[in-house]
Amino acid sequence: MYKRHLQKKILKYSKEYPLLALVGPRQSGKTTLSKALFPKYKYVSFENIDVRNSAFEDPRGFLEDLGPKAILDEVQRVPDLFSYLQEIVDVNPEPGQYILTGSSHFLLIEKISQSLAGRIVTFKLYPLTFSELNNYSEDLNFESIYLKIYEKRKVISQQKLYEILWKGFYPRIYDRKLDSYKWYENYLFTYVERDVRSLLNVRNLKLFEQFLLLLASNSAQLINYTTFSNALGISIPTVKEWISLLETSGIIFILPPYFKNYSKRIIKTPKVYFVDTGLLCTLLRIRNVEQLKVHPQLGHIFETFIISECFKRFYNLGETPPLYFWRDQSQSEIDLIINYGSSSLPIEIKSSQTFNSNFKKNILSWMSLKDNQNDHGRIIYSGKNTLSKKGPISVVPWYFL
Q: In the chain, fewer beta carbons within 10 Å around the N or the C end?
């Protein structure tokens, strides 16, 4: 099992709250992590139909027989339990009584908001980060993500980068040494057949699969709802509903435009990113590393990787990722802006192995905007050398961050 960087936060808050929820996409490692952190807790999975029926028929009796100090896996499958859990922890608010996990975390969070507000702390667990995969130390604080440069880390070859992008970051692929392409095919089939069918009134699952493919071809790009609607013959509200489903189930995330009004001509349309590049490559029908190397979407896949890493690392600190992009109507764009509160860091992401001074152009343009007090930026690229470390815009190999 890989050490998950979220575990310190989970252990800390399990001593403060009676209920703790661990949610996220299927196969991200929630059950494995829960069992590892709470080995003495009883474990029940509501994927088991007998267990689920027992809880449905007599939820109060089920919880009384189970007792506290238990892990309730896929608990959203028995929604009646939430009210009884609320009753139990209101009578006895002792910390760390139940660990709740769920894949369809939008359902779980909805029930939490209704029944368990103030009694539960919720964490999101996504697939492995590059740091977790390589057993690097976790981020110490909010401000260190993509600010601190780890120049003592080993150099990662371009070939290895391609392999990482194609293979993705779901733990089971590495734990079991599985064929990643076949695993992702089965993952998509399970997701569409089980989650989509049960959560949306999608009569034509083939149409939803086509929607997934179209969305994959637009990763790291602006969302054009009208284009999706016209291409698939569905309404714009349906497009938005399907995107919301994918976002809340941990398949994609949305990057909003930068919120500070440094330019009134800013583009307000958000961008979409897949959380995992292995899943993205599978949807794009990239069957091996050699196909990835020459794929026209390679630059977008690399950008997806860098931004999704940042996204996951903030969640591993228990923080909501303060991530944005910037683009004005003249098409000047900055791929990623991290807002640290008192300051912001603009980042350009380039898959090129060779630095070009033009990479700095958009950051310099953004810095020169009226009332913008931020004077540092960063270029993340595929090269091997760190450049301009003491200058206003540093150039850093991706694996040093």
A: N
DSSP structural state of residue 191: I
The CA distance from 312 to 321, in Å, is 8
What is the predicted pLDDT for the residue at 118?
A: 86
CA distance 180 to 171: 11
Q: CB–CB of 252/274 below 8 Å?
A: yes
Strands 271-274 and 252-255: antiparallel
- What does the block give as tokens for 286? 């990239």
- Say whether 63 sits in a helix, a strand or coil: helix
b/e per residue 223-237 (b: at least 16 CB within 10 A) = beeeebbeebebeee
Q: Is 191 exposed, middle or buried (0-12, 13-18, 19+ CB in 10 A)?
A: buried
Please give the Cα distance from 229 to 371 (Å, whole number).
Answer: 39
| Phi-psi region at 72: left, alpha or beta (left = phi > 0; alpha = psi -120 to 50) | beta
Task: Please tell me the distance from the alpha carbon of residue 309 to that of residue 273, in angstroms, as a whole number.
Answer: 11
Count how many residues are written for the chain. Answer: 401
> Sheet harboring 252-255: ordered strands across?
221-222, 271-274, 252-255
pLDDT for 107 equals: 61
